[in-house]
Amino acid sequence: MLRHRQPDLTVVMDNVNKAHNLSAIIRSCDCVGIGEIHAISYRKSIYTEQNAAAGTSKWITMNLYPDVESAYNKLTTSGMQILVATNREECQDFRNIDYTIPTALVVGAEWDGISEEAIKGADHAITIPMLGMGESLNVSVATAVILFEAQRQRSLKGMYDQPQLKPDTLEKMLFELAYPRLSRELREKKLP
Prior knowledge:
Helices cover 35% and strands 17% of the residues. By secondary structure, it is of the alpha/beta class.
């Protein structure tokens, strides 16, 4: 699993608040090799331990932010392009984006969609073309569709063939995942 992690691919959930959607997004992230995700929420915590995650939430690190600006500052500092998924006319087809460069995909809340602040701060607005009466997919489904396009592009480029994590990061994560109780004790005692 760690050999396939893509540290330069992530998802940002802009006030996605339904636990089953959060969990399904986490599961899709794990399936394409994302190990760290981000959530913007007006709440102090969000619940992600649902059956839809199929246990994958323990393999994913989630960073929680109080606002879009805080999350975007972290992502742009990391050199990521920021893509917002929405269904506006000026959007690009999600398949026409290069996901092999560092990318953060921002998805919006179930009812309100993505915030204006998130759209304004993004590099590109993307959409999944719709041909039926529905104007959009469920947020977790849309996220999965886009992430699997990113996985397809990255696979073609060989980005899953070699570990993308730095060797010391990979070894540390391997130890922490293989020995969670011991790792927690060492962290609490501030030991290496």
